[in-house]
Amino acid sequence: MNDMPRFFSTEEHSWQALVDGEPRAASGGETFAVLNPANGKVIASVADCSHEDALAAIDAAHRALPEWRARPAADRGAILRRWYDLMIAEEDALARLITAEMGKPLPEALGEVRYGAGYIKWFAEEAERVYGEIIPAPVGGARAFVTREPVGVCAAITPWNFPNAMLMRKVAPALAAGCTMVAKPAEDTPLSAIAAAHLAIQAGVPAGVFNVVPTSNAGDVGRALTESEVVRKLSFTGSTGVGRELLAQCAGTVKRTSMELGGNAPFIVFADADLDAAVDGAMASKYRNAGQTCVCANRFYVQRGIYDAFCAKLVERVRALKVGDGAEDGTEVGPLINQAALDKVSRLLAEAVAGGARIETGGANKDGLFFEPTVVADVARDASIVREEIFGPVAPIIVFDTEAEVVAAANDTPYGLAAYCYTRDLGRAWRMSDALEYGMVGLNEGIISSVAAPFGGIKQSGMGREGSRHGIEDYLEMKYIRMGGLSA
Q1: What pLDDT sits at residue 11?
Q2: pLDDT over 90 at 7, yes or no
Q3: 3-class DSSP string for the chain
C-alpha cells in the first residue's frame, strides 16, 4: 500500500497509544523501550500509558458504544472483512514486526498473522448469525422470546507470545457482537497491537470502538480496566497467577470474564503409535515458538516398549534444528523473550538433572537469550520441570507402562488446557479422549489450534472459549422478554 503509515517500520522510534481513533502520547509524556530479544537492540520507543490514559480509553469506548451496537450486523461484518483484507495485504510487514519484537522465526510470524486475520474473517461472518429464540408462552395472549445483545465496553489483556493472534481472537468477536474494546498489549510486544489497531481504523472501524493502551505498568492500567464500572467484560490470556488476581479485582464490579491461563500439556505416546508421526507431532508441539506457547507439550510420557526408539528419533531431529535470529533465513528456533524466561528454563533443567535426569542433547544457554533445543530423559515424575510450565525448548521424557498409570499421571495437575495422545488403537483413542481432563485433546495431532474450533481449558487453565461459533457468545448478553395483552 502506498499510504502505509510509518509506524510499520521498526526504524520509526515513536509509537503512540490509539485512543478515540487517534494516536495519543501518554498523559505524562513517558515512554518505554521495546527490545529485539535476538540482539537486545531497542527497536521502538512506545507511549507508556497510565491509569489516567486507560480511563480516557474507557471513556472513548463508552461514547462509541451506542452507535456501534446500533449498526446492522451486516455493516459491522463488512468493516471487519475490510480489516481482514488489510491485514492480509500487510502480512509481510506485520510478520516482520512480530519477529522484531518477539523473536519467533519469520515463517512462524507470517503464520501467526494469517491465523490472527482468520479470526477477523470468521467473526465478520458470525456477526450476522447472532440469533434469538421464541419460547412457548405458558398462557394464552402472550409471547415469550429471547434476544442477544452486546455486553458493552470490553477490555482485553494479551500476552507476548502471540502478540497479533491473541489480540485478534478477542477483538474480532467483540466488535462483531457490537461491543467496543480497550486493549492492553504485553509490555514486551506492544507494536503488533498498535499496528493492527491502525489498520482497523483504515478499514472503517469508528473512532473509540477499538483502543490500545500500551504500558510498562501493567498493574496500574490493569486496575483501571478491572475496577471500572463501565467495562463489563474482561478477557485475559496469561499466567494462572495473574489470572487469579484479575478475577479477584473483577469481583468488585461483577464483571464477565474469559480466562485463558497456564497449561501443563502431557504428550502421551503408546507403543502401538506410528512412531514417526509421534516424533513429527512432538517437534511441532514442543519446539514451535521456542516452546513458548500455552498449548506446548510440556511433559512427554512414552510407553516402555518404544521409549528408547522414541528418544533416539527425537534427539536426532532436535539436533538438526537451527537456532538463531528469527529474521535470518532457515532459523527454526528463535530466542526466549527475556532474561526471566531464560532463568526459569535454566533453573527447571538444572533441578531435573540434579534429580537424576539425563540430558540427551542441548541443555545450554547460547549467546544472549538463546537456549539450545533440549531433550532430557529419565525425568522423575515429581520433578519441577514436570509440574511447572516450562515455556522453553526443553522436552522432559518419562517412561510409563500402563494406560491407567499414564492417565493418572497426565491428570495429576491443576491445569487442564491441552493434551496430546498418539495411538493406533481406536478403542484406546476414545478412552483417552474421555479420560484426559483437558479442554482440548489432540489425538495423533501435534497442532490443534483452529479458528473454527473452540479454544480454552478447564480447571485452573481458565474459563470460557475463544474462536469457533461459540467464541462470540462471551460478548453477548441474553435478554428474556415476555409480552402480554395479545388476546383479541
Answers
A1: 52
A2: no
A3: CCCCCHHHCCCCCCECEEECCEEECCCCCCEEEEECCCCCCEEEEEECCCHHHHHHHHHHHHHHHHHHHHCCHHHHHHHHHHHHHHHHHCHHHHHHHHHHHHCCCHHHHHHHHHHHHHHHHHHHHHHHHCCCEEECCCCCCCEEEEEEEECCEEEEECCCCCCCHHHHHHHHHHHHHCCEEEEECCCCCCHHHHHHHHHHHHHCCCCCCEEECCCCCHHHHHHHHHHCCCEEEEEEECCHHHHHHHHHHHHCCCCEEEEECCCCEEEEECCCCCHHHHHHHHHHHHHHHHHCCCCCEEEEEEEHHHHHHHHHHHHHHHHCCCECCCCCCCCCECCCCCHHHHHHHHHHHHHHHHCCCEEEECCCECCCCCECCEEEECCCCCCHHHHCCCCCCEEEEEEECCHHHHHHHHHCCCEECEEEEECCCHHHHHHHHHHCCCCEEEECCCCCCCCCCCECCEECCEECCECCCCCCHHHEEEEEEEECCCCC
**Rounded distance, CA 74 to CA 341, Å?**
44
Question: Locate cell 480509553: which residue?
Answer: 57
pLDDT of residue 236: 98
pLDDT score recorded for residue 13: 46
Helix axes 218-227, 51-70, angle to 10 degrees: 40
The yes-or-no answer on residue 260 being catalytic is: yes
pLDDT tens digits for range 191-222:
999 999 999 999 999 999 999 999 999 999 99
pLDDT higher than threshold 90 for residue 116:
yes
Active-site option among 294, 296, 311, 421: 294
Residue of 112, 260, 360, 389 marked active site: 260
Chain segment 321-352, per-residue pLDDT in tens: 999 999 999 999 999 999 999 999 999 999 99
Separation of alpha carbons 174 and 208, rounded Å = 13
pLDDT at 52: 97
Roughly how many angstroms between the first and final C-alpha of the chain, as a whole number?
A: 63
